[in-house]
Amino acid sequence: MSFQANLAQMPSIDHLSGLNVCDAAGNVVHHIPAAEGKLGSLKVYNALAAEFNGELNRYAAEQGLIWFNEHVLDAQKHAGKHPNIDLLFKVQDENLTYTLQPVAK
To answer: Is-above-0.85 flag for pTM?
Structure first.
């Protein structure tokens, strides 16, 4: 399915102001705001939080890349253009584990 088709099946993010990605010590290592141009990524990461009990590990990252679908190839060709996809690559490549914390409004 396309990225837009995947988004249509995910839970609403209307109640969120963003999402924090935290390391084992609780430090925020990445933040996705509820802002124009970031809402699709916020929706994917929120769905990952729900699907994987708030954990971003290599399996969750793999699912995230599937959901980002057609944007993954562009991210591979242009490092830094899609930081939220780049983070999923990093989690996979380095076998990292983070906590996903949706932030309510």
So the answer is: yes
